[in-house]
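User: I'm putting together notes for a lab meeting next week and I want to include a structural view of one of the chains we've been expressing. I don't have a solved structure, so I'd like a prediction I can at least talk through. The sequence is below, exactly as it appears in our construct file.
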Amino acid sequence: MPRAVVFDLDYTLAVPTQDRTTILQRAAAEAGAPALTREAYLEAHRRNLTRETREPIFADLLEGRETDADPAAVADAYRETIAASLEALPGVEAMLEELRSEYRVGLLTNGPVRAQRDKIATLGWERAFDAALVTGELEAGKPDRRAFEAIAAELDVDPADVVYVGDEVEADVYGATNAGMDVVQVLLEDGPGPDPRAADHVDQSAIAAELPQILDAIDSPAK
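Assistant: Thanks for the context. Below is the predicted structure for the 223-residue chain, given as structure tokens.
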């Protein structure tokens, strides 16, 4: 029977009001950097999951480019733009409060410390979880099992007693199941379909309404 529920942040509990490509383009232009692609950004992000800021990400992206743009300035512009556009999915704040009456509730999010902590602060969620970890604070990021073991330890539970809720197949579904957790996969409108390794699935738009019932089903002895 699960004792804890741990959430991913981006696209699981909160979404930007602008698409990430637009945000990236606006930030690059504001900092005087050349055009950057979302695909290249994601590759650089995956190489820099345990960093303090996004500066190393943009340093990677600007390396070899003919530009005087400062990676730190691009990182600041991106952080400020994305934080300003972030909003919680409808109903998730009430859902988190409800779940904390039954479970230990945690957050495990990939990314640099300052970027992800700024998002949590922008949303006003500093006290919304019993424990919240950013992989920039850890020795490994998702899908490395050490990241999942770290949040389980922060919640004082065994990984086998955790249900992890996230949208990414590799980082979340594979990562959490590999660490011995059950997973509820969040399905995005334009994302991958249900992964068979997940214990259950929920549409992003229905997470607040349906997740408590899904957790009850995972709780049941008939699981």
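A couple of points you could mention at the meeting. The longest helix spans residues 71-84. The longest strand covers residues 104-109.

User: Perfect, that's what I needed.
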